[in-house]
Amino acid sequence: MKNKSVQTEIDACYLYRKLAENESDEAIANVFRQMGDIEQSHAEAFARRENIPTENLIVPSWRAKTMNLIGKIFGYDYVLGALMDTEKSLSNAIIKTKEKNKMELTGSETNHVKILWSILENDKNISGTQHAKFETRHRSVGGNAIRAAVLGGNDGLVSNFSLVMGIAGATGGGQAVLLAGIAGLLAGALSMALGEWISVKSSQELYENQMAIEMDELETNPEGEERELALIYMAKGIPEEQARRMSAEIMKDKTHAHAVLVKEELGINPDELQGSAIEAAIYSFILFTVGAIIPLAPFFFTSGFQAIVMSVAFSAVGLFLIGGAITLFTGKNLWYSGFRQVIFGLIAALITYGIGKWIGVAVA
Question: How far apart are CA 134 and CA 142, in angstroms?
Fold first, then answer.
């Protein structure tokens, strides 16, 4: 039986190889293949230490297979982002554990992330444009997008499940539950959509304003911006003379200089500003609605105690699936995470049902 460390390396190997198979840019695909080989060597090293046979070792878990399915359906950029997030999370977890136990940090804790970027930076077949393309892809989508989808569905399910149970407690599961549930679904989904639109739009406007200020500075004081860019490169470890030459060369093209300054000084990736606030709002609305419809569904065709029981059953299944989906990022045990989600959701619904019952009796 494989332990968790071995399986983590196996899954990373599997996913890197799937990324390579589905990457049209051969230079980037070669990077993924190299990472897959490195992860396999790590898995084999762990396996030998645990006396696990290394032949036919690369057998992915259900999590890795699910991530590959997501890649097939929605695109492998999502897999890349999730994989990079996992690498960073593992590194952070190792660092926190060592700090908690007052163990010495050796610098090897972030080796997986460092190795990937080292390959990208040192591979002569990887151009600056390809490097930027890779960075944009893994930062713009991936783990955060999938995580947002899971959490959006969870918000819709838990909030509307609690609302439905509260009204059911007050009315005994009458038709008022359906009306209140639909109202709660629409109110919650619209609120989520508006919040997402404001979040995306305000971020875009902030970044656009900062970029405009940077262009003004570039036009009014190009010498100062050139010195500033040289200092940024020097801070990265580039020798002073080389940093000054690079800065001078970049400043010959004002448009290119502005793009570099925006990225290096402000830390803004202009490609990320292309996202649509309307699109983000629509996705948020849909995801919340999908979760919110689950506890409400039985009340469309029945009512009373039967509808309440069915609503609880449907919601429990939905909560377990969401808990299971969360383990794609946490790596926790499926049953533990799924049942934990069910217990918390049922507790919230039980509280609102009890309050609704009390209010219903008091009003009657």
Answer: 12
Mean pLDDT lowest among 7-21, 254-268, 274-288: 254-268
Chain segment 222-243, per-residue pLDDT in tens: 777 777 777 877 776 777 787 7
- Rounded to two decimals, the pTM is 0.62
Are 282 and 211 members of one domain? no
Q: What is the pLDDT of residues 147-197, one digit of tens each?
A: 677 788 899 999 999 999 999 988 888 888 999 999 999 999 999 889 888
Residues 290 and 248 in one domain: no
Which stretches of the chain are assigned E, i.e. beta strand? Answer: none
Check if the beta carbon of residue 148 is closer than 8 Å to that of residue 84: no
Q: Judge whether residue 265 has pLDDT over 80.
A: no
303: amino acid identity, one letter: S
- Which of 38, 70, 34 shows the shortest CA–CA distance to 142? 70
Range of the domain at 119: 4-140
Please provide residue 206's backbone torsions phi and psi, each rounded to the nearest 5 degrees. -65, -50
The number of distinct structural domains making up the chain is 3
Burial class of residue 36 (count of CB atoms within 10 Å of its CB; 0-12, 13-18, 19+): buried
Give 171-240 as a DSSP string. Answer: HTS-THHHHHHHHHHHHHHHHHHHHHHHHHHHHHHHHHHHHHHHHHHHHH-HHHHHHHHHHHHHHTT--H
Residues 6+ apart with CB under 8 A from 35: 12, 16, 115, 116, 119
